[in-house]
Automatic annotation (TrEMBL):
Domain Phage head morphogenesis span(s) in chain numbering: 54-175
Protein name as it appears in the record: Phage head morphogenesis protein
Matches recorded under Pfam families: Phage_Mu_F
InterPro entries assigned to the protein according to its UniProt record, in alphabetical order: Phage_head_morphogenesis_dom
């Protein structure tokens, strides 16, 4: 077993192990639980140079996948070079085999699981659940570990913190991340209730300290390797943010603590979207109405699209806007709609004027004046309150997508990342010059790229290209005509696939 676990590169596990300090010890309990996240120890190894060589030998296994047999050769050479004697297991061949396996397996498994913890936390907006799996490789299965096989827990459930594998010496259990659709395939409507298996007291015979440990877990193993590093970083950032001006502090917090949108995330969603698009074309063809009917059916089955947005009507025709926005919300995954509802209150106004969306974030006094000028009059100034003006199904989907953008910035980050990648070095041009037949303002500018409409690439000062997501969703879910749908499908398959990919695979 290596830190790569087969053919998959595993940088998170390598970084975790590299980041450990050397901790001289007399016995295994000198470093306890989360202390292992920052300290490398081998019980009885008290010299820094000895520890450094042992750390290097284990690091080869984590980073390069060297075998246990190779580690044993390195271990024997290190022990001889440093004259280390008196360590447990030294006296017999069986003892040496047991001790080297213990050192090797324990460090590799905890490094692997710490790396997995980092991955799970970074991707929990897409996969918010975990399934516990007992390994059939265990020579002596622990009954409680077997009983936990198949349990599904929310990522942030406290049970996960104390039962994240490994849960003892030699434990080979794992946890796997799941999305909403995975639960439905398992016949579940939500996570399981954490089992109450009780606990026991373990007394450290040297210090006399008593530790309460969950049943089924060895003393000192009731923690999630790697979790404390994340928590320490978050606390340190929160402390620094409190001392900074609000705007700078918020930016620092978002940049450091928010999930990172990487090219790997983006390309994987495009790849998954392409597979789903091909399947839908095979089922319904490429005609706009047929494809979208099949899309709605499969989305409802695999993701769920029945939740209607909570809309408060505004004005004499507010009920029309409410109906339009409720219908538009049923085009999106239920988890997205619930996320937006929890984000803040939404007001809807019906008007034939140009559609708009505004969400009050931060110091929004100026935004309130803009709302008044746009016909909303005096509105409650609730934090994160959203205001949408629409008049047809197309504008309702488009402006509701803007609302989702505000509630789920990490979703918008995927579309922004694609835009930056595609328009790197392209100039900003006035939309009036790109589309002179339409009444765009002189200050409206876009990076044209090869979008089917240059409006896709419109950029807003300091906020990026906010129309890529909204125009793409409108064109796929509620196109104004079949031509625009077909053009996006045929001429910009990359963006089309991203829309399909996030609809099926992005969970906030």
């Amino acid at each position: 077993m290596s830190g790569q676990y087969g053919s998959l590169p595993f940088d998170e596990a390598i970084r975790f192990f590299r980041g450990k300090d050397l901790v001289p010890t007399d016995r295994w309990a000198d470093v306890w639980k989360e202390e292992h996240d920052v300290g490398f120890m081998v019980a009885g190894a008290a010299k820094a140079d000895l520890l450094a060589d042992l750390h290097g030998a284990v690091l080869k296994g984590v980073s390069k996948g060297t075998t246990l047999a190779e580690f044993r050769k390195d271990f024997d050479a290190i022990v001889a070079r440093h004259g280390w004697t008196g360590w447990k297991g030294e006296a017999t061949a069986a003892g040496r085999a047991w001790r080297t396996r213990l050192i090797y397996d324990t460090n590799l498994r905890t490094a692997y699981q710490a790396g997995r913890w980092a991955q799970v936390q970074a991707g929990k907006q897409w996969r918010p659940y975990l399934e516990y799996k007992h390994s059939d490789l265990s020579a002596h299965p622990r009954p409680l570990h077997v009983s936990w096989d198949g349990l599904v827990m929310a990522v942030d459930d406290p049970w996960v913190q104390t039962h994240w594998p490994p849960n003892g010496w030699g434990c080979k259990c794992r946890m796997f991340a799941l999305a909403e659709r995975d639960l439905r395939r398992m016949g579940k409507t939500g996570p399981d209730t954490p089992p109450d298996d009780g606990s026991y007291d373990w007394t450290d015979k040297v210090t006399g300290e008593v530790h309460r440990v969950p049943n089924g877990i060895d003393p000192g193993w009731d923690y999630a390797p790697g979790a404390s590093r994340t928590d320490l970083m978050r606390k340190e950032i929160e402390r620094k943010v409190a001392k900074l001006p609000a705007g700078i502090g918020r930016q620092l917090k978002e940049e450091v603590l928010s999930p990172r949108i990487t090219s790997k995330d983006l390309d994987e969603l495009i790849r998954l979207g392409n597979l789903k698009t091909d399947a839908l074309i095979g089922k319904a063809g490429t005609a706009s109405e047929d494809f979208r009917a099949a899309l709605r059916e499969v989305l409802q089955t695999e993701v769920g699209t029945q939740t209607a947005a909570a809309v408060t009507p505004y004005g004499s025709n507010g009920s029309k806007a409410k109906r339009l926005l409720e219908e538009a919300s049923r085009q999106f995954p239920d988890s997205w709609t619930r996320k937006a509802d929890a984000f803040g209150k939404l007001y809807g106004r019906y008007s034939e004027a140009r559609a708009l969306h505004m969400t009050l974030i931060g110091d929004y006094r100026g935004q309130m004046l803009d709302l008044k000028r746009q016909g909303f009059g005096v509105m409650p100034g609730d934090v994160n309150a959203g205001y949408i003006r629409c008049h047809d199904p197309f504008s309702a989907v488009h402006e509701l997508a803007h609302r989702l953008q505000s509630a789920m910035p990490e979703l918008d980050g995927l579309f922004q990342a694609l835009h930056r990648r595609r328009t790197n070095g392209d100039p900003l041009r006035r939309l009036k010059d790109l589309k002179p037949d339409l009444a765009y303002g002189r200050d409206e500018r876009a990076r044209e790229d090869h979008y089917i409409d240059p409006y896709f690439g419109k950029e807003y000062d300091g906020r990026g290209a906010l129309e890529v997501l909204t125009m793409a969703f409108e064109t796929v879910l509620a196109p104004r005509d079949a031509v625009s749908f077909t053009r996006l499908l045929v001429r910009d398959r990359e963006l089309f696939n991203l829309v399909i990919g996030v609809l099926f695979h992005y969970v906030p």
